[in-house]
Amino acid sequence: MILGLYCISLGLHICANASGRSTHQAPFKNELSLISLDVPPDPSGSGEPFLPTDVDASNPERLFETLRDKLKPKFPPLDVLPCANVQVVQFKACPKQGTKTCSACKLVSYCSKVCYSIACAAKNHWRIHKRDCKNQLKSDDWKPAWVVERRFPTSFFIETNLPASLSAESLRAQMTEFDSGLCLWGNMPAVDLINLAENEKDKSLDLSIALVASGDLRHVVRTISALPEDYSGHLQVLLNDVCPPVVARNIVILLILGTVPDETMAVDIALHFWYSVFMPAEYSTNIMAIVASFLLRANTNPEDQQPLGQRSSLDCLITEQLGQLFRHFGMSTILSMAEAQNEYDRVRTASSRGDYRDRMLARLKPSHRLAFQEFRRFGIVLPFGAMNAHFNVPNASLFSLNGKWLQTDYADPLAGWDIGEILDAGTAQGAQPEDIYGCLYFFLSHELRTFARRLRELHISFRVVATDATILSRVIREDGLSGFGIPASARFDRIDVSNIFDLNYVGIRDVLTHWGPLLKESRTAALVGYFMNWAMIQPDGRACSAGDIESKKLIRALIEKGRFPGLGPNSQILDPRTSFAEPARLYLMGVLGDLHIGLVQVGDELNAMYDNSKAFAQYLKHQKLEDILRKTRLKLRKKHTIVPHGRFAVTILVSQRYKVPLDAAPNTLPDFSDNETWYQYVRLVLSYSHWFELTQTGWYFS
Hints:
It is a single chain. The protein has 24 helices and 14 strands. It is of the alpha/beta class. It has a domain at about 85-140. Strands 1, 6, 7, 9, 10, 12, 13 and 14 form an eight-stranded mixed beta sheet that branches. A two-stranded antiparallel sheet has the order 2-3. Strand 2 (about 85) and strand 3 form a beta hairpin. The longest helix is centred in the middle third of the chain and has 22 residues, at about 435-455. It is globular and about 70 Å long. The protein starts with a strand and ends in a 15-residue tail after the last helix.
């Protein structure tokens, strides 16, 4: 059942050839049967029809099914690491598995020495690989620009030591633009909100969960994928977010995974719609057909639920803004390839953010620097050496209605998942750890495939709305959604509130007051959430504000384990209590070099070793948590059974700490058994996290 449906025009885009030039099909009319089939050729230039010829334009539903079922790109989704012998100009790629890794960069692999020789004989391929393999970023001698230029990075002193091309005023303006935006890829690892084995322990039990500020679908995907194959209960999922682009994207991803019959194609389309800035034209047209079919069905049979496989279903409350976004997703006339690439480049390569990018790159191993640069250049989640010439249509869902990039300039798909699981999944398919986005591709493929199977095999009902979380709770309690399948008597086994506990969002008092009454009275029921900003409010919330004695202890521990950036084990360092003037003088004389890079990095890394559990308890006390819990009849859960203790935890909460056991005490620190684990979970993770500590204060929509 779709309430408040707005009929919209949809645009069919058949777009782009291998050179990146775009051609466009005329948009759909409101009468969905008026569809022209005069389309441009396949992007490979073969002259073959882009659309199947056996389509019936007089039957919209049948046409949508044909597009959805038959329209596939020339290069199929990857199940193993591909051979890197790719000839872009000829639109050809070796179809075999890559097993012989380039020993220099470890980012690409070939199926054989013969194929490698053939590839190198092709001047265009060798030119590209040589550019990558010998890239300065991959050199051990690479240094951030601020080191080369003997100045301090702009993140430390805005008014002084700026690059010649920048003024303090222009820098501040660009910092505001590039450090704010929507969060479409997540900012903390996905959580299994049910964890059935540790909680209800009953595979036949009906469950109801609410994600009231859901963000993207990663928690939903992880939660449902983790259900046992033989789960026989009925799972009801309420998905809400106040941000229309987030909600619209979530609906489309569910439709893709629940309606495309070919599981492999469904997974690949959903993966790139979720995370890639560009996609194959065939995928874009599939998405158009899926959305148009969904809206046509809703308009024709408004009381019907949208099936997702044989047993699952989707209900949505569609607002006018969501309808506008669905149209946006299905029209390439709004955004050309050149326009999308130029906007993406503008954000990812802004001169004012050069020092922030260098700060990120300085944490990384040489090949990871190159992998990060590659994603920031092309925006496509694929193995490093895979063919991508057929990714020739912008992913409009990542751009605003007027063509602006919606996220921050440091947004990264890696931020929403566990880095160890990503590396394990990639190496299992033949990718090297250096090819971090190739590893991510294989991880996401596996995760989404499992989720798609659960949709088809289990009984799951999704209800999706887009409103303020506090308004939603009031509407439920006042019986305003009974016609939508959520009566006033509804109670939830899990309520995930994300980080709206933060004071700059809703705050802990209002969150618990609004949603506490909707939590089921059960030993296993839990309201789960986390804080992002508390440590900036609490004086000793971060290592840098913990005092000289604590800082010195943490720095000494880093040095002893060989984890202080730029220093080996048992090295010496200036006393952290020394004034900044002397290190500054030495640095500007060119004396400190690598050590200064370490000094810039180490502040964030110290937090991974700092026990701030007492500081957090003090913060909760200042927020009068005990009084709030007493009034809402909730209690703080001492033993966690959903996620480990982190920056907070109620029959309520979490900010998951990496590498901490589920049943650990609140003051348990992560266990980084060796320096490689430290690198993966601290430096690699920090590289795609916030570059400095300003957090978003809301979403925007234009």
